[in-house]
């Protein structure tokens, strides 16, 4: 393999943490960005879990792809595994993606394991907002994570209507209290 690609749908898009040879907007089919992972450490606790992003089944997801040179593969994949597989809530998969210029490539992506106990399932935006609004963990409040994620997506020109709806609901809850 001369190169490989990594697909990012959350913080990996703006904070990859590794060197890459090319960066391109990309689309993955059959998966969507979702607040479907219960966070027990960084954005919540086991008693009061927060929610963080996962790549879940269904729909499509606009994200960012990074082309990695073959010479950096071992280092990058080791880094990604340390970063993404801490509690094994994600499965490392190689999936087809389409780059913004029309090229079709395969990329390593981290998909939520629906059988893992941290999988929250498909929540509606109101339910997700109630969790996000009240949870906090070692890395800070859950709502800060969600608001920051949405701000970064907007800066990159990526719309995520479901995540926007969650943020709208959190803001509505704050105004009501």
UniProtKB/TrEMBL annotation:
GO terms for molecular function: glutathione specific gamma-glutamylcyclotransferase activity. Pfam families: ChaC. GO terms for cellular component: cytoplasm. This is glutathione-specific gamma-glutamylcyclotransferase. InterPro entries: ChaC, GGCT-like, GGCT-like_sf. One of its GO terms (biological process) is glutathione catabolic process. Keywords: Lyase. The keyword Lyase applies. CDD domains: GGCT_like. Its EC number is 4.3.2.7.
